[in-house]
Amino acid sequence: MKIFHHILIFIFIACTLFLVRDDVKMVVGKISLYISKSENSKHDYIKNVEKVLPEMVDTPGPLRAIGNILDNNTKLSKINIIKFTNTARNENESLPPLTENLKLDLSAEKKLQDMFDKQYFEHISPSGVGVSDLGNKVGYEYILLGENLALGNFKDDQALVDAWMASPGHRANILNSHYTEIGVAVGRGKFNGNDTWLAVQHFGTSRSICPSIDEVLHGVIDVNQSNIEKMSSDLAIRKSMIDKKAIYEGSTYSEQVAIYNNLVNTYNKLISDTKLKINNYNDQIKTFNLCLTKNQ
To answer: Is the pTM of this model over 0.70?
Structure first.
């Protein structure tokens, strides 16, 4: 008896599904069409904001002085290394002097201490930290970033800078016309059991030299886009009710048409306003990217 009862239920459900299958297909079709139209409509008036170009980092191989004997009278200094670096820039290509930046001093000092602490001499630490990570850690927002390293017992600051200038990769960093700032750290300590000097130069070009991008405007665009989506959905529902000549939200047909037309007006104005904002924002991005390109 139970089996017969179950069979009857199954036949009833199957018949019901058979009878409504066209309605289901119609509804699904309308939904798919609406989604498709919504997506197409969205792309008609919304452009993706353009991406900012990536920052550049330059790190020539570390410079190691071989065979020099430590002179206890040698005192390498940050001030003189910066001075001789700027002298080299002026003498070789009449380049403007680099300005000392305290954040770059700090990132260079962190690199120096890390090399002594972990006993390595590479641009990338054993834990995977590089110059870009150090720049980010000290809050230096950059377009361009570079690093020169030196290990050994150089006669003096001039000899150290001369050694960097004799190395093509390090020389390229010192004479890079796009750099505007520098940070330096030097220190003496134990490295692989020997008493020696380590020196670090961090070169940078700050993002502040390029026009700023209005992120508040970006936020307004996001809000507008969200409101456009909601209004689009609301208008579709109202249009459906108008087509059916059904009472909706207690409003008559003519009242619904008036409400709908007012909303369409608001909707179109919002789209037009958002277009202008997006164009403005994208122009800012283009100007910023052009500045980045010129300074890389």
So the answer is: no
